[in-house]
């Protein structure tokens, strides 16, 4: 008769290991915030090796995106915004941002995220830290002025205001305007933050 002996150490990945990692990540992000959460700490809390977290998620950014159930990958958004010149950056920002909201699924998920952000300090802090790292910082680095972070913050404020007006409050005629008209009207104001 062969007796199986369990070796000491962390357990290997099981059927719900991925879910346990996500649960641990959500708790860590909520308790400590984005910056203070580490892959090792999440792995320790989930009872797995850090290599397994990397296997499932690749990086802390990807773990954050999945754990927070973001409706979009902020790194993809940043790449699309930065794909071009500074002279048409304002138009790209508006087109990409509003494009995320335009599909039914995108709008539903963005509304849910926006409502969570405005009703929970913890969610707001997490989104602020995560979005700053994955979108606002790369866009700030793309700009030349010394006050680039302020400019990008003002752009974000402007675009969040547009989203609230069009998709949440549904104020007319902004809510009924076609996307191209909105992009045409809003882009010069956003470009002014970039180059003005």
TrEMBL record:
PANTHER family the record matches: HTH-TYPE TRANSCRIPTIONAL REGULATOR RUTR, TRANSCRIPTIONAL REGULATORY PROTEIN
Protein name according to UniProt: AcrR family transcriptional regulator
DNA-binding region: 38-57
Segments forming domain HTH tetR-type: 15-75
SUPFAM superfamilies: Homeodomain-like, Tetracyclin repressor-like, C-terminal domain
Entry keyword annotation includes DNA-binding: yes
Listed Pfam families: TetR_C_16, TetR_N
Keyword DNA-binding attributed: yes
Gene Ontology MF terms in the entry: DNA-binding transcription factor activity; transcription cis-regulatory region binding
Keywords: DNA-binding
InterPro entries, A to Z: Homeodomain-like_sf, HTH-type_TetR-like_transc_reg, HTH_TetR, Tet_transcr_reg_TetR-rel_C_sf, TetR_C_16
């Amino acid at each position: 008769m062969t007796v199986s002996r369990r070796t000491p150490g962390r357990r290997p990945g099981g059927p719900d290991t991925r879910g346990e990692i996500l649960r641990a990540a959500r708790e860590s992000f909520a308790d400590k915030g984005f910056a203070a959460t580490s892959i090792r700490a999440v792995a320790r809390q989930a009872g797995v090796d850090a290599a397994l977290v990397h296997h499932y998620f690749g990086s802390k950014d990807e773990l954050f995106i999945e754990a927070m159930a973001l409706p979009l990958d902020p790194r993809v958004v940043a790449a699309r915004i930065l794909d071009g010149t500074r002279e048409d950056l304002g138009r790209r920002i508006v087109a990409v941002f509003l494009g995320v909201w335009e599909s039914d699924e995108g709008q539903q998920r963005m509304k849910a995220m926006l409502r969570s952000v405005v009703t929970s300090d913890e969610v707001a802090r997490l989104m602020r830290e995560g979005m700053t790292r994955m979108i606002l910082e790369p866009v700030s680095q793309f700009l030349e002025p010394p006050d680039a972070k302020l400019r990008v913050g003002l752009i974000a404020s402007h675009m969040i205001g547009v989203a609230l007006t069009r998709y949440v409050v549904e104020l007319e005629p902004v809510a009924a305007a076609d996307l191209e008209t909105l992009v045409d009207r809003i882009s010069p104001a956003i470009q002014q933050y970039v180059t003005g």
